[in-house]
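Workshop exercise sheet. Pairs work together: one partner reads the sequence aloud, the other fills in the structure field after running the prediction. Swap roles for the next sheet.
Pair: D.N. / O.F.
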Amino acid sequence: MPNPFDGRAERYDAWYEKPFGRSVYALELECLRSLFNPAGRALEVGVGTGRFAAPLGVKYGVDPSLDMLRLARRRGLLVVRGYGEALPFKAASFDAVLLIVTLCFVRKPELVLKEAYRVLKRGGRLYLALILKETRWADHYLKKARAGHPIYRHARFFSFDELKKLWQGYFTLERVKSVEIREVQDEREVKEAELVDGFNESSAFTCLRLKRV
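Structure field:
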């Protein structure tokens, strides 16, 4: 399967400077910071251009796209080309692993979570961030996918129950926070949004903190 981000790194990164992208990005960072403990050695799997890892203080990143990694290096990250299904790191190497939207674009999500488990130290934390299938936002992006959007047509949206089955036996859930945005659109600056516990149909971005068993 071709990587949907190859050849689109600059365009992808520029999205974060557009009115909607800039405003929702700030909210997504706020959501992650509300759960993330920056202490210890952390890895972002699917680091992309480093837009999340750099401000969160995550030093290490892995991604299959060389185009994306070039931009991540400019942000001062230590990155390597690789896949979430076969991480190029020793067991028990990290205190934290982040998967920010990454799970939606991998071939075998169960292997990605198993690999996150392997490289985490006992009691380490896994941070998942994604758009849940139960939300109106997933419906919005699925419509774009059906219309042939070059990125979203490769995305898979998971329900909360599907995620639980994937992490069962490897992780236990500690906390869930979401960015709630009631107006579903992706062009204008977000004017009204709220950080909430759990998730609901208006959750545009959901963050989960899990502990390695």
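Discussion prompt: The longest strand covers residues 120-130. What would you look at next?
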